[in-house]
Amino acid sequence: MLATSHIEGEKFYTKYIKIVVVSLVSLLVICTNIMNIIGWSRVRHIAMATRAFLINLSVSDLCVGIIACAPSSYPAWTGRWPYGDIWCQISGIVHGSSVTVSIWSISLVSIDRFCAVTWPMRYNTMVTRCRCAMIIAGLWLCASVSFLAPCLTKEDFIYYRFKTEYSMCGLYWEYDIYCAITGFYIPIL
């Protein structure tokens, strides 16, 4: 009897710690990225393209916080996904797309700075506001299509599943080929 109550006590504290960690991480991700967006929007002494890519990075991370992390607080406590299959698909697509765009945004900051240093006289004609907007839109479109694609292979469009160990819906890799393709092209692109 004592061993059973000890195990139940451990499960309760593990669950409590998990809910606190998930909630705290969600809150920090959301708050810090809102501050980043506001801060980068007000800074004027940094190149427009660099600022746009850094704001895009914060927006993509904010999407992860709002769509994927914050809703996971309740499942961290209950061990089940209460929001239904449609929200699970939205969460999976947005989470995957946002993380991908986040990776690409960091790369774009490096590429932008490389262009500024390598071609300082041509930089302002090469890197325009319109080109930056098209690149950012293209990144979001490419990432969204990439993470929507597996849903289109299912008759009921339900691909992403809830994982108890992550307390999240998404991060699901049913197709090895899909995993290999995205694992290959996301870092290279």
Identify the notable features of this structure and list them briefly.
two-stranded antiparallel ribbon, Rhopdopsin 7-helix transmembrane proteins, mainly alpha, globular, 189 residues, 7 helices
The main sheet comes to: 2 strands, antiparallel
> What's the CATH class, please?
Mainly Alpha
Mean pLDDT: 88
Instruction: State the helical fraction.
Output: over 70%
Distance between the termini: 57 Å
Described by its quaternary structure, the protein is single chain
Sheet/helix structural class: mainly alpha
CATH fold-level assignment: Rhopdopsin 7-helix transmembrane proteins
Based on CA atoms alone, the radius of gyration comes out at 20 Å
Percentage beta strand? under 5%
Please report the total strand number as a whole number.
2
- Domains (count): 1
N-to-C SSE series?
HHHHHHEEH
Low-pLDDT segments, ≥5 res: none
Given the C-alpha coordinates, what overall shape results? globular
Using the 3D structure, state the CATH architecture.
Up-down Bundle
Fold topology:
Layout: H1 2-42, H2 48-69, H3 73-78, H4 84-118, H5 123-126, H6 129-152, E1 162-163, E2 168-169, H7 176-188
Antiparallel strand pairs: 1-2
Question: Would you kindly provide a written description of the structure presented here, covering whatever features stand out?
Answer:
The chain is 77% helix and 2% strand. It is mainly α and 189 residues long. The protein contains 7 helices and 2 strands. The protein has a single domain (2-188), classed as Rhodopsin 7-helix transmembrane proteins (Rhopdopsin 7-helix transmembrane proteins, Up-down Bundle).
